[in-house]
Design a protein that fits this description.
Elements (H helix, E strand, L loop, with lengths): L1 H14 L4 E2 L8 E6 L11 E3 L6 E6 L7 E9 L5 E13 L3 E7 L5 E5 L4 E5 L8 E4 L9 E6 L10 E5 L5 E4 L1 E3 L5 E3 L3 E4 L5 E6 L11 E6 L4 E6 L12 E5 L4 E6 L6 E5 L6 E5 L23 H10 L1
Antiparallel strand pairs: 1-20, 2-23, 3-4, 4-5, 5-6, 7-8, 8-9, 9-10, 11-12, 12-13, 13-16, 14-15, 17-18, 18-19, 19-20, 21-22, 22-23
């Protein structure tokens, strides 16, 4: 019976992954699954490209668990530079306990990640193989537990801002970073700026000038609703909730996300839902930005499988 149940669960997981571009955007954007990533343990967390190397992917594995970590794997690129798959098997990049949907480089080349369900933000310096700093952000005003984070790129409203999204609280927050003297940063008090709800996870800023996005916008994975939504930005780089509409529908476990700097493609991971990496093409390539190691200070003052899956689905 146990084996039968396991097989049924796997079939359901793969089948339930299927998603589609919402009708308004379907004529301009295409949706492709790149499949599972060899060597990365399920469940998947946040993802981004390695600083200084656009052909190396970083992806959270074992997400939401004490043994969560970030793994590195090469990517293949095809026509137009679009990512088409993976090379070899992933290797351990750094431990990252409880990693969730947030994974992004910040000032000084520090790699930031979110931890669920303990409401933490971790920081990993260049060359480190474990977090150099981990902060619990409950006392900083972020409703437990955090789901994701990112930094507003140059050229957008609120450029340089450090943004945090709370999965359980459904809120979007502004915060700040101040050097702590050790190459990492003190996270400042957070201010609630929007409440998109839906279990927010990974979010990215849409490359400016992309089709059907006349105004600066972001894409936000709503894990709890099985969607990725598109929202216009206010003057601080936060989502205008009244403007939000579905961009991708019919997902299971929409998790982390990043924008490929070479193509503008939006890539996101799934926590469950087949544990896939998905690529959405049709965006323009973003304007070049400084390497993470040369970024200026941001903001004011400068960012058991079944049991885990049940907790996240029901949280």
């Amino acid at each position: 019976m146990a084996l039968t149940l396991c097989v049924v669960c796997m079939v359901f997981s793969q089948a339930s992954f299927a998603g589609n571009i919402a009708s308004y955007y379907a004529g301009s954007y295409t949706y492709t699954s790149l499949g599972t990533v060899p060597g990365v343990p399920i469940l998947y967390g946040g993802l981004t490209l390695l600083a200084g190397n656009n052909n190396e992917l970083l992806l959270g594995g074992g997400a939401n668990g004490a043994n969560g970590a970030i793994y590195e794997i090469g990517v293949t690129r095809g026509s137009g530079g679009h990512i088409t798959g993976f090379t070899g098997s992933a290797t351990l990049f750094s431990t990252a306990p409880y990693i969730d949907g947030g994974l992004a480089y910040g000032p000084g080349g520090v790699l930031f990640y979110t931890g669920y369900p303990n409401n933490t933000i971790g920081q990993i310096k260049l060359g480190s193989v474990s977090p150099d700093r981990i902060d619990t952000v409950t006392g900083m005003g972020v409703a437990s537990s955090v789901g994701s984070l990112n930094f507003v790129p140059a050229g957008y409203p609120g450029a340089g801002g450090f943004k945090i999204a709370s999965y359980n609280g459904g809120g979007f927050y502004d915060s700040s970073l101040t050097p702590d003297g050790f190459g990492t940063y003190v996270i400042g008090a957070a201010t609630l700026t929007a409440s998109p709800g839906g279990g927010p996870e990974g979010f990215v800023y849409v490359p400016l000038g992309s089709a059907l996005f006349p105004n600066p916008s972001l894409l936000l994975a709503e894990y709890g609703l099985g969607t990725v939504i598109a929202c216009q930005l206010d003057g601080g780089g936060n989502p205008v909730v009244a403007s939000c509409q579905d961009f991708v529908q019919g997902l299971t476990g929409a998790e982390g996300g990043f924008v490929d700097p070479l193509t503008g493609d939006f890539l996101f991971s799934t926590f469950g839902g087949g544990n896939q990496v998905v690529e959405v093409s049709g965006f323009v390539a973003p304007a070049p930005t400084p390497e993470p190691g040369t970024m200026l200070m941001l903001g004011t003052g400068v960012l058991g499988l079944a049991g885990v899956l049940r907790r996240k689905i029901n949280r």
